[in-house]
Amino acid sequence: MGKGGYAVGEVYSIQPLVNNRQPIEKPPFTIGTLRKAIPQHCFKRSLLTSSAYLAANLAAVALLYVCSTAIDTLPTWARLISWPLYWFCQGAVCTGVWVIAHECGHQAFSESQLVNDAVGLVLHSCLLVPYYSWKHSHRRHHSNTGNAAKDEVFVPDVRPVDHEEMSFRTLGPVRLLEILFVLTAGWPLYLLFNMSGREYESWANHFSPYSPIYSRRERSEILISDIALGLAFAGLSWLGSTFGWLWLLKVYVAPYLVVNAWLVCITLLQHTHPALPHYSDTEWDWLRGALSTVDRSYGPLDVVFHHIADTHVAHHLFSTLPHYHAQEATRALIPVLGKYYMHDSRSVPRAIWEDRQACRWVAPDKDTPGSGVFWFKQFKEQKKSD
């Protein structure tokens, strides 16, 4: 039981593929009400505390690397086990580093924007992420969450209310291949081609200062991101030529791919769920959009991921809230949010398997075709058969 007498897995849990949609009525609370419900110390951003978490992350990265230097001295059978184990662990820890860099983009690392941007630029560049480019597009995602026309990522296609589709993509093996493709190639394709993002009149990507994603005043920072990435690639090329490309593949590239997979998995499941609504541009408002996300637990990895997944609702409401206060803030918010709070108790593999099938496009309900509220079509069909 949590504070306020709620049970996350019971009262406020989303049950998989049943009629338990998030309410679409305007909430009986305001963002000011929600802010007052959270202890004020939760909004304090401490450079010392944030740096301590970062130092722990980097120490874990270094320790795992040191351990990896002994793997090739092991028998063949042990190497076949130890290398994938290293990739998984290092990828998970580096995902935690990614989350801290993400907090820098939200100005949640410290009170200083200069410190936030300097730390975020270094960390994200080391993970081959264009810091400023993603910071600005991600800010627009937070400003337009749930808007079917203006959101920046995982924007579903809006189909007519009577649209039907029979597709080979519903077959299990095809669905599995799609999931593997999204987890491995989804992140670079989003950066390069804005895949799964909103439509723009011209080619949108995260590397051109003239990309339609960005305003004129942001162009210089996009260029800074590109230069930082160029330096990161140069450093990796030097490491590969010095220590061997196979060494670089095993030590850096494989964990890097694991980071990308976790990043896509976490963000996909946060915003693609059969119980979450999407809104037309005329129907949408910021608060209901911010609530159109879902918390879920990754078990012990929640600590490694700095609770980016199990406190995501609070993050969308208050993005400058540091991760080390997010659990306390979530506990304070849930009694106020009531039925507007979304928590999915399914396992991660089950959720990504089921939602890849259920969440292919959105459409209005047949009884409210002009409401401007859209739901995943497959979810509605599933409910009829339950």
TrEMBL record:
It comes from Coccomyxa subellipsoidea (strain C-169) (Green microalga). Keywords: Membrane, Transmembrane, Transmembrane helix. The lineage of its organism: Eukaryota, Viridiplantae, Chlorophyta, core chlorophytes, Trebouxiophyceae. GO terms for molecular function: oxidoreductase activity. GO terms for biological process: lipid metabolic process. InterPro entries: FA_desaturase_dom, Fatty_acid_desaturase. It comes from the Eukaryota. Signal peptide: none annotated. The keyword Iron does not apply. Residues 82-343 form the Fatty acid desaturase domain. The keyword Phosphoprotein does not apply. The chain crosses the membrane at residues 52-71, 83-102, 174-193, 222-239. This is Delta12 fatty acid desaturase.
